[in-house]
Amino acid sequence: MDNGKKYLAKLLGTFVLVFIGTGSAVVAGTYIGFLGIALAFGLSVLVMVYAIGPISGCHINPAITIAMLASGKISARDAAIYIIVQCAGAVLASVLLLSIMTGHPGYDLATNGLGQNGYGAASPGNYSMISGFIAEVILTFIFLLVIFGATSRNAPAGFAGIPIGLSLAIIHMVGIPITGTSVNPARSLGPALVVGGTALAQLWLFIVAPIIGALIAAVVWKYLLEGTATPS
Question: Distance between CA atoms of 86 and 45, rounded to whole angstroms?
Fold first, then answer.
């Protein structure tokens, strides 16, 4: 597969995830609520697994890429480029979402935001930094564990997108009140760069915690779970 196509696919996949996911919160959040937003994120990943997975694998999250690198499944060169294009796709999605929202007379960036993540006063449920950090580590761990299992050689072929997408949806159902749910540094980077202020100051948590959760999942899968499945 041509490398350029792989990188473009990852950029587009991350763009879709961030545009639809955060867009569901900013554009339609008052109509669909947390459950609808959670489904928007999950279904975005599900459809992109099938849309771009055959081209490049659906790495539309730097935490996934880092976990795959740690597991020896991709090269350091590919990992670095994947992360760059993932972040570019996320930022592009946030910039274009803002350009749409500025056409609404009642929208104000400082007041309404752009689906950014946060803790403390910036948390939807006013959860503390510690609560947010622990939640992001655990939720990312769960997400990556599902990804490793769903894409393993013992898993049914062709169905990976379903558990991966559904797992992201249920993760958001729990995580949205706590931090808005990141589990994806690129997803947090895009809105934070555009919104600035508190979102940018708190961005570190949504980079560090998901990476820690992803690395723990990589270790657990590689050394405790991989290759342990037996025929039913």
Answer: 14
User: For 142, which DSSP code?
Assistant: H
74-89 pLDDT tens trace: 999 999 999 999 999 9
d(CA 6, CA 168): 23
For residues 118 and 179, the answer to whether their CB atoms sit within 8 Å is yes
What is the model's pTM? Answer: 0.94
Distance between first and last Cα of the chain:
35
Which tokens in the block code for residue 136? 């992001």
Supply angle C-alpha 152, 142, 138, rounded to 5.
150
- Which of 215, 228, 230, 139 lies closest to 180 in space, CA to CA? 139
Secondary structure letter of residue 39 according to DSSP: H
State how far the Cα of 71 lies from the Cα of 222, in Å rounded to an integer: 7
Three-class SS of residue 76? helix
Q: Read off the pLDDT of residues 81-126 as tens digits, 9 standing for 90 and up.
A: 999 999 999 999 999 999 999 999 999 999 999 999 999 999 999 9
- In this prediction, residue 140 has a pLDDT band, given cuts at 50, 70 and 90, of very high
